[in-house]
Amino acid sequence: MAEIIALDDVHDAGILIKKILSKKGHNVHTFTEEEEAISYARTNKVDLAILDIKLKKMSGIDVLAQMKKALPAIRAIMLTGYPTVETAREAISLGANEYCIKPIDKDELEEKVSKVLRG
User: Going from the N-terminus, what domains does the chain have, and what CATH number goes with each?
Assistant: First the structure.
């Protein structure tokens, strides 16, 4: 199916995303460090990036902007535990296709991943 990156500064959140989406047949690569995820996206095929907005060194929106430079066609879903209209607007304006509110809901994540990958 799809090659997916999951970037969250909380290791368990990445593991949860991997468990949910691997059952749907996707290959999920989890990261807790922004630079590692960006580097991976530059050198590997990635269909979808699932990025937490609040990270350690930079925001998920900054990470998305860097990934878009390397892979303009990459699709993205932003994760946030602090949803605001501003954050949603900024994420969408930078090319995020969707966003999910944490804690992650399995059905919502599966539905949004499916929708974004269909284009």
Answer: 1-78 (3.40.50.2300)
